[in-house]
Amino acid sequence: MNRKVFVIGTGVSGLVAGIYARLAGLDVEMFEAHSVVGGNCTGWNRKGFHIDGCIQWLTGTRPGTGINEIWKTCGALGDDVPVYYTEKIASAVYEGKTYHLYSDLKKSEAELLSIAPDDRVAVKKLLKDIRRFQNLNVPIHKPFEQMNLFDVLPLIWKLLLSGKPDKKTETMTISDYLGEFKSPVIRRLLSCVFPVVMPVYTMFYSLGIRTSGDGGWPMGGSQEFVERMRRRFVDLGGKIHLGKEIDRIIIKDGKATGIKPKDDDREIPADYIITAVDADMLLNRLLEGRYPDSFFEKRFAESHNYLLLTGTYVGLSVQADLGAYPHNIYIRPEKPVRINRTELSFFNVKLYNYDPKFIRDGKTIMTILLTENEFDYWKALKDRSIEAYKAEKERIAGWAIEGIVNVFPELEGKIELLDVATPLTFNKYCNSYRGSYMSFIPYGHVRKQIHKGTIDGIKNLYIAGQCTFPAGGLPLAALSGKFAAQRLLTAEKKMNGK
Known about the structure:
36% helix, five-stranded parallel sheet, single chain, 16 helices
């Protein structure tokens, strides 16, 4: 009889873990509190339109990369899945003229130098840092602690060839780094790459990926992406229980032996448990605070060293032909807006004018992510008054729409608000800590570490999730799921004396 594995959480890391465990012949069941799979890799429908809530671009769309191998194995990508690659990574309108950051690095270099010849030295340094991150494929074949020198030598060699990072920029955020440039146009273009509160190395990584022929958009978006993975798991014989919230993991004699569902008196036995949930939910709910973990506790305690990325997400439809518009545009309204303590002065808007799923009846979807960390404010507001909560969401969306119209006056009266999702929304539907979609991102001065994937004092429990890696994101979520399954299989082989 096959050994039974329970996977808690059906985000990308959970789906990957379940698929790899099933491919190894184990009996796998997955449990999901929500009514759909995907976790933070999600999308939702409003007023007859679909809003994508996750993928902006995806590492691993290029065949031959390690992450692409995982996506194909799990059914997320394949020869039958079209991928769109944009020529223009970011765009900004300044004094009536539109400028671009290109996926072709030579075109970007020409554009940036023509914009600001006085920034030549800073531009050259930027290009050098971007090239450092091109083609740095992370080894994906087995967990890092199981690798030997021959496994990591190719990566070490590539790192040596790429050159040393600039010590000055190592500790900068993107916002700090923008000060290296005199040109307001270049500052605006770079502000479109990643939220400017993030460490600058994340921007170099993003641009390195996207200028290396990777980082495309899987047509259909996040929801169809995870649906393909769900079908792959089910086709392999796996079982998924939706709407099944888990209260705790059963620990007996230092071993995970099963789960206790919410509103269910039963304790359901299993041989192994893989958790693919938020670290706060794992430690404080599923393990009832009984098993401290220094890796996660350090990150919860030191918010000044580890960034928690949250935000308010605005979905719009536009009654206009936006085919000729850029996909990712910097917008700076005439006046800033405040969300409690956070002042927002600009944002970038994403247009889905390249994917038919997001175009309907002559209307095209736009989305805006307003980066802020005001979970407590939104919660207190909603607890006090639902109407006040709705009014505040509409106020923020109105500010964003006004900013778009300032840049593109021809769109006035053609933009309709579909939805506003706050950090509270992501906390409710994705069980993410304080509504974060990416957490524990170490600032430049902080040592980058990877969680070992287990909890001290508990056998047969393995941890997946982007929170086990620095930075996070979908590729690392996938890698964590694969590693969790491989750690489990290594333990299974030892148990069986193989």
